[in-house]
Each structure stands twice: as structure tokens, then as C-alpha cells.
Design brief:
There is one protein chain. By secondary structure, the protein is of the alpha+beta class. Helices cover about 25% and strands about 25% of the residues. It has 3 domains: about 160 residues, Uridine Diphospho-n-acetylenolpyruvylglucosamine Reductase, domain 3 (2-Layer Sandwich); about 80 residues, Alpha-Beta Plaits (2-Layer Sandwich), CATH 3.30.70; about 70 residues, Alpha-Beta Plaits (2-Layer Sandwich). It has a 5-stranded antiparallel β-sheet. A 5-stranded antiparallel β-sheet has the order 15-16-14-17-18. It has a 4-stranded antiparallel β-sheet with strand order 11-12-10-13. The longest helix has 12 residues. It is globular, with a radius of gyration of 21 Å.
Amino acid sequence: MKHPNPRTIEDVQARVRETAAVIPCGGRTKPALLAPDGAACVDMTGLRDVVDYEPSEFTITVQAGLPLADLARLLGSNGQYLPFDPPLVEAGATIGGTVAAGLSGPGALGGGGLRDFVIGVGYIDGAGRLIRGGGRVVKNAAGFDLPKLMVGSLGRLGVLVEVSLKVFPRPRHDSTVSIECGGLAEAVEMLHRIAGSNLQADALDLEPPGRLFVRLSGNREALPRRMERLVEICGLPAEPMVGAATEAYWKSVCEFAWAPPQCLLVKVPLTAGEIVRLDHALEPVGTPRRYSIAGNVAYLAWPGERGAEEVEQLLQAQDLCGLVLHGEAAGPQLNPRPGLGPRLKNAMDPAGRFAEL
């Protein structure tokens, strides 16, 4: 019996067992991750239940097809949230797709990244078995830390069906300012200075050529003094963002509203010290770009007409790798690092049903 649109975990198991090559699909907000030819989509959007949620315990377990927007509303009704600012909420991203893509937003600077919040997973392996890890079961019999392995696995190690997460109380107050630093090198130096201070910024992004956006959150009475301290550290004027403009700005960042619709949207892990060199290489192409999480990740809106091969060559020259989230590419990974070992692949996908990482 075919199960093109699974509604239960048992449906997913049957779908995996009866299909030679599969790839899980959620909200399809990161279509480049669905690139493997010949792989059948396992549509996970029918699995969207809240399995367990006790707000006083600050943990929640949900099925992988639950949209992030629904999850945010549920947590918000209890004054809670996911501090890492998951991207593409409004676009329809699901929690399973977010975990598989390993995507964290600007709030990962102050609150920790996605990997820090995933405490348990349930997934279907290549033999159609339901495997659970995390919580009281820290490792499976093969000795792997399953929750950590599934973050950024791109659906190539198994089909996520459940995710358990830590959640936090939402801060009642936050403030955002923009600081014009005059140029890229000056902005990077200022970024280092702020990130290395005791300010504990909640988010710190760089918009080339030289504008920083800094978000602080916490006690309302303490925020003005912390903002004064930020100005002291920078030695430059800080332009406050007021009212709804603050929420709208960070929402536009998380939704990649700055990226043209026909671009190749590429995530590039890096360090702040690599920003200037990469930016100089990108500038002649006119690539819209952002540097987030205090310079630990770049997002490039590479012109779609130039193709993935050219941006991959550019990244290779910088000794950087990339992950294509949106746009036409032969595969999502550009200049990939060495893959996971055969022991892991064989243990988690004994039937070889999932594409190689």
C-alpha cells in the first residue's frame, strides 16, 4: 500500500520501506535541499501534532511536520519562545526541516544555536525502524549522539518524525540600535569589540559596507544603561529602532526579505576574521549579503543567472564551504568538507535509502 502523504509514524515507516530512495519534505522553504535526482519525497506536513508540552518543565516534544509559526504561537501563549530566532517562520518552515538544515537565526548569539536546544529526536532509519535518542536515552546502541547528529543532517541520515526542544521564557523588553561604522574593516573591528565585551548582546549583525545592528534584551530598568555602555564601547552614535520597527526589522532578516527572489541563497559558515576577504571577492559581483551571529555565518544572495559553479569556485578560493538553501543547484553543498564515516552511515541507513551527505 502506498503512503504518498503520511499521517502517522507508521505511514512514514511504510513509505521508507517501500521506496528505494527517499528524501523528507516539509514546508519546502529550502527547496535546494531537495535536489537529489530519483529520490521520492516523503511529505511530512501531515505529522504536526504536539506530543508533549508542560510549560513549567520548559520542554516540548512535537512532530516534525509542525510549522514553526504554530509552534511559536503555542509557546508565546505561555510566555515562552525559541531564542535562536528560527528562520523562515512566516514562509512556512517546519521544525523538522529547520533541524535537518541546521538553521539558526540572529538570536543564536545570545541564546545559543539550534543544536543547543534539540534534546531528543525520533526518526525512521533506512530499514524503516523507529529510533529514538535523547532525554533519558542519550545514545543508541551504535554509540552516537543522535540529537546532535540529526541537526544539519539534511535528511540524509533518516526521516525525522519527532523533535524534543528546550524552550525559554521570552524577555519582556529588548532594544535594537544601528551603528554606522564608516566601512567594512571598521565594522568588523567594532563587531569584535562588541562581541568580546560584557554586554551580552542578544543579536549582532553586519550589513555591508559598514552598518551594525545590535539587539539587547533583559530587564527594562537595566537596558538604558546597557545601551549607554554600548555607545561607550563603540565611540560612535547609536541610532535606536523604535516600536514595531524593531520587530519588523528582525523579522525581515529571518525571512531573508533582503534577498532577490531569483537568487541562489547560500549559507556560509565562517569567522569574523574572514569577512573582509570574502566581502572583497563578492563585491565585484554585486552580491547582496549579510553577516550574522557576530560574523559566524554569512548569507549570500548569489545572482541566479551566474549559477552555482561560479559561487562554488569563489568559496573554494576562500577555503570556505556553503549550503544552498534556495535556487537551482546540482546539490545543496558547495565545496563540502569530508563526509561522515561509513560506520555512521551504515548504522543509521543500512539499506542505503538516503543520499550521501
